[in-house]
Amino acid sequence: MSNIRPNEQDIAMLHRIFGWHVIPWTDAFCEAVSRLDVTPRTVLEVGASRLSAPSLFFLRRGASVEVTCYAETEAPALTAFCETICQEYGLPVPTIRVHDAFSATERKYDVIILKGVLGGLDRDHNLDVFSKAIERSLGNLSENGRLIILDKGWCSLVHNLLLQRFGDAGGNNWHYFSQKELKSLSSPDNPPQVIWKGFTSAGTMPFKGLQRLTDWLDTRLFNRFLSTKGTVFAALYSGNQAQTGATRSPT
Ligand SMILES: C[S@@+](CC[C@H](N)C(=O)[O-])C[C@H]1O[C@@H](n2cnc3c(N)ncnc32)[C@H](O)[C@@H]1O
Which pLDDT score is estimated for 228? Predict the structure, then answer.
């Protein structure tokens, strides 16, 4: 049984390191972490930003963490963010470098995290491209490692219309994944465990009061009853298939 279930102090930190839309991300992340069988020793985060690097949580559990961004130009702001958080919480500053989600790594990791990255990797919504990124990450995992994809989910037609009309990502052709699509991105014998959160809090709300209300409704009501619907998800893929090579399941 894993001993890394986040406690109250961790949750306060998670709210800081999720940066935006923090409640549904934190809820999904906490449940995903609680499902890990063992405490990871090595963690890689792909596509972190100057506002958000959830992998820093694992520093509190003694893991060796590498936080990466895509472009060299993003590295100074990401470094400043990580340094601030680490100083605040008395943690060692992790390695910060660039990495492309489609690249092989020199070493293998017990946990790899992509938060708000996968859905932007192909703006034409080609599932084969998303599957390639998953396959690559699975190949970068150590035996029994876990890939944690945190991203935006397809919740309903109404949600999607609103997100496309008013959301930055939605207006920019971000891909909102369904449960079925997430299953199709790995081989049929390696389906992900998917955790859904945030039915009413579709994104960063325009008013703080509205944000508080939607978060309250989700945590008190919708998250408890809607286990397969939400605007945010955490998908846990197992690395067991990495050695044999994952291929996409037919949709
Ligand atoms: C919506 S932002 C999210 C950033 C951060 N994870 C967060 O939640 O604030 C998407 C990020 O994906 C990164 N990205 C785009 N293509 C990538 C790739 N091929 N490999 C790794 N990261 C990539 C971008 O640089 C950008 O920082």
Answer: 86
Length of the chain in terms of residues written:
251
Helix ranges, the chain (H): 8-18, 22-34, 75-89, 127-139, 157-166, 179-184, 208-217, 223-225
**pTM of the full predicted structure?**
0.93
Report DSSP state, residue 53: -
What is the number of alpha carbons within 13 Å of residue 185 lying toward its C-beta?
30
Asked if residue 217 has its Cβ within 6 Å of ligand 1, the reply is: no
CA distance 179 to 195: 10
Asked: is 8-240 a CATH 3.40.50.150 domain? The reply is yes
What confidence score (pLDDT) does residue 165 get? 80
Q: What confidence tens digit (pLDDT) does each residue in 41-68 have?
A: 999 999 999 999 999 999 999 999 999 9
CA distance 63 to 67: 12
- Tell me which amino acid residue 26 is: T
In sequence order, what are the beta bridge partners of 69?
98
C-alpha 31 – ligand 1 centre gap (Å): 23
Best substitution site from 20, 49, 100, 232 to test ligand 1's pocket, by max atoms within 8 Å of Cβ? 49
